[in-house]
Amino acid sequence: MQMKMKLAVISAAVILAACGKKEEAPAPAAAPAPAAAPAADSLVVKIGHVGPTSGAIAHLGKDNENGAKMAIDELNAAGVKIGGKLAKFELLAEDDAADPKQGTAAAQKLIDAKVNGVVGHLNSGTTIPASSLYSQAGLPQVSPSATNPKYTRQGYKTTFRMVADDVHLGSTLGKYAVDTLKAKNVAVIDDRTAYGQGVADEFEKAVAAAGGKIVGREFTNDKATDFNAILTTLKGKKPDVVFFGGMDAVAGPMLKQMKQLGITAKFMGGDGICSSELPKLAGDGMSDDQVYCAEAGGVEGEEKVGMEKFRADFKAKFGSDVQVYAPYVYDAVKVMADAMVRAGSSDPAVYLPALAATNGYKGVTGTVSFDEKGDIKNGALTLMTYKGGARTTLAVIR
Asked: Are residues 159 and 174 located together in one domain of the fold?
């Protein structure tokens, strides 16, 4: 009997198999839903930013990048529309380590990513070679801080600058050294970069024009840490002022070594040394009213309210004080977006003429207007010194 039942079960199984019946397998997992396509009434706008976020002046590069992030966040919160479409702004940030080769590589990467515009680079030495690539791609480039005059004098239609150039910067500082600091003998050091050498050359010309005497010209590089040889040479010439064309990461150690060698001259430099980080980098090598510098930009009167609010908002957002250039990066992003809105398009070829025609944009750094070369019109300079480890404004000069 049991044998017959077993045979019946087996026979039933064979029949079911022959009919194609089998035990059902678990249902497969649902495929992931495809990413939502942008709505027909919206568009993505990619803004590239390049600065040195690694290396000796990474604190300046990060300061710039944060300025860009702040502007992007505010644009998205404001619900900006371009050509009737809601714009979603995205930041594509690249590091050039203040190195020209890495700078051009970063530029090409942004071009390949089809960004709609670029804010950067920080240094003249990276900004100038990258500008050629952006020009060939027809991509608008707004530098927040490159001051070498060559940048906007290459004949490119895509280059714009948010600050006064070295001609204004160096000549103002040179005149100030002779007329206000009463310097008769002046020594000059530069770091051989496009920025450092350029601003030092303009400073030297201005000192001579004002009746001062250049008693020595030495050079170093932007990664050096030992300056004893050149400082010892200059000490014997008894300068009243030592001017350094370069960045704060080099200026700080240089000030320390000047003190060690007993050099009591005033120390001057351009916007590259005019940072909130300099007192930390110089340590006890820096005393009150010893360092004089000029920041390429500045606001006066009612414009100060906007800048002070920006600085307070920046610190609340990122937990750090503005170094130097973040407000100019912030305004550069906003000016670029404003040109897109006015042109009704984020296409570089379409909004580029509107960007060039920018005239009277009210930013936190003041009123922004560009001349025919892409330079800021009526660029201001803020002369500063340091007291108690903090920057103190002496005057705003236009």
From this structure: no
